[in-house]
Structure formats: structure tokens, C-alpha cells
Amino acid sequence: MTKQQAIDTVNRFMGLLLTDFPECAKLMADDFAWENFLPAHIPFGGRYEGAAGLQKYLAQLAETWVIGEVVFHDFIFDPETRRMTAPGVEKNGKSVVTGRVCDMAFVWEFRFAEDGKLTYLREYNDTAAIGGTFDS
Length: 136
Description:
Elements lengths: L2 H15 L3 H5 L2 E9 L9 E4 H15 E2 L2 E4 L3 E3 L4 E13 L5 E12 L5 E8 L1 H8 L2
Parallel strand pairs: 1-8
Antiparallel strand pairs: 1-2, 3-6, 4-6, 5-6, 6-7, 7-8
């Protein structure tokens, strides 16, 4: 897998995530996991496994968070381990609960199977930024 193939897979995955989940799921390995550990007062943090787990995560997310514009600043890829790190920012994410908005810096880690499918996505988010939008 090349860096460009990894970037293309991520961009396709992200583009389909909220618009065509069945097509998005075709880009995921059977043992796919998504992790996004957040402060306890944010209702959608945790580990989600497989397509069903990802659907649960997205449903919890949709109930309490309006996803802002996700902008990746760079992609760092290691072809030997098939791991890619992508720093960026989510602009104008919004808590449905409080109506507060934030720009949240992040670093996401993607892992790929030998066939190029995604096996893992880990979000490392600015928990102070997102946490502040849920504070009462």
C-alpha cells in the first residue's frame, strides 16, 4: 500500500461515512474498531467494533453533536506497518445539548489490513475544547 492509496481510502471512507454507510462498510475489515475516548460527560466516547458498532457510535454522535468541517493538515504514512497519522481540526463542531461551538484540534490514527481495508481508527481529540462545549 502506498501513502496515496491510504489517503484515498481515508478520503473515500470519510466521504461515505454519513452519506452511504453500506458502501463505507465495504472499506472496513471485519475486525474494524473505532476508538474515541472522551471525558465522561460527553455521551459518545468509547470503543466501537465492526459495522454495527460504528453505526451505534454515529447514532450517539448525531443525537448530541453536529459534526463540523473536518480538515486534515497532513498525512504521515508508514508503508511497513500500514499506519497513517493525520493531524487536523474539526471546525465549528457544535454540542446539541448546549448550543456551544468549538474548533477542535485532533490527531487521528488509521491502520490498514494487507488488502487496504481499514482495520482501526483512533481519534485523539482536544478534550478540553470539546468538553467545554458540553459543560453546563
